[in-house]
UniProtKB/TrEMBL annotation:
<comment type="similarity">
    <text>Belongs to the 5'-nucleotidase family.</text>
</comment>
<dbReference type="GO" id="GO:0000166">
    <property type="term" value="F:nucleotide binding"/>
</dbReference>
<dbReference type="InterPro" id="IPR006146">
    <property type="entry name" value="5'-Nucleotdase_CS"/>
</dbReference>
<dbReference type="GO" id="GO:0030288">
    <property type="term" value="C:outer membrane-bounded periplasmic space"/>
</dbReference>
<dbReference type="Pfam" id="PF00149">
    <property type="entry name" value="Metallophos"/>
</dbReference>
<dbReference type="GO" id="GO:0016788">
    <property type="term" value="F:hydrolase activity, acting on ester bonds"/>
</dbReference>
<dbReference type="InterPro" id="IPR004843">
    <property type="entry name" value="Calcineurin-like_PHP"/>
</dbReference>
<protein>
    <submittedName>
        <fullName>2',3'-cyclic-nucleotide 2'-phosphodiesterase</fullName>
    </submittedName>
</protein>
<feature type="domain" description="Calcineurin-like phosphoesterase">
    <location>
        <begin position="2"/>
        <end position="183"/>
    </location>
</feature>
<dbReference type="GO" id="GO:0046872">
    <property type="term" value="F:metal ion binding"/>
</dbReference>
<dbReference type="InterPro" id="IPR006179">
    <property type="entry name" value="5_nucleotidase/apyrase"/>
</dbReference>
<dbReference type="InterPro" id="IPR029052">
    <property type="entry name" value="Metallo-depent_PP-like"/>
</dbReference>
<dbReference type="GO" id="GO:0009166">
    <property type="term" value="P:nucleotide catabolic process"/>
</dbReference>
Length: 201
């Protein structure tokens, strides 16, 4: 399965150029022109998606031909998730005996709560961000109840050896302990990995 885990629209001269130029209705951001040629199942947002503001982000995402999920960003006005929290997709697979099967794969996405600090000017008064692990504990059972055979977490988050605490930036280890989670896509782990002392003992 091919998924996007964010930090696409910022971080390059092209990203800065497109943000300065702006996106009109119907424009497709170059990064999505590229990704749309591939068979992405779903995408999640990274912290850098918010560097240019929510309006620009929504305009950019409109050009993606695959869905985006995020469960822990909350719209201040509605008190509901700003994006679709999760998605369950029927996926055709071949089992070990060579027979076709259909799996219902659930995808759920998260961003670090620290975006409220890093992009305060763009987000304050518009959204809030909930704890990653607690949000997973809320939604994963719901995904199972709705028929997900497999639950895949796409977290724009890394690993930490720190004891669990609410609103942690790097929550992937603790996400792996949430009942019902089968797989984690992680981010924010630059360099060689695994590294010593990245996991709690």
């Amino acid at each position: 399965m091919l998924v996007d885990n964010g930090d696409l629209i910022q971080g390059s001269p092209l990203g800065d150029y497109m943000a300065a130029k702006g996106l009109k209705d119907g424009d497709i951001h170059p990064v999505y022109k590229a990704l749309n040629t591939l068979d992405y199942a779903v995408g999640n947002l990274g912290n850098h998606e918010f560097n240019y503001g929510l309006d620009y982000l929504h305009n950019a995402l409109a050009g993606a031909k695959f869905p985006y999920v995020n469960a822990n960003i909350i719209d201040v006005k509605t008190q509901k998730p700003l994006f679709t929290p999760y998605l369950i997709k029927e996926t055709s697979v071949i089992d070990k005996d060579g027979n076709p099967q259909t799996l219902k794969i659930g995808y759920i996405g998260f961003v670090p709560p620290q975006i409220m600090i890093w992009d305060k000017a763009n987000l304050s008064g518009k959204v809030t961000v909930n704890d990653i692990t607690e949000t997973a504990r809320k939604y994963v059972p719901e995904m199972r109840e709705k028929g997900a055979d497999i639950v895949v977490v796409i977290a724009h988050s890394g690993l930490s050896a720190d004891p669990y605490h609410s609103m942690a930036e790097n929550s992937v280890y603790y996400l792996s302990e949430v009942p019902g989670v089968d797989a984690n896509y992680l981010s924010e782990v630059p360099g060689v990995w695994p590294r010593p002392r990245r996991l709690p003992r």
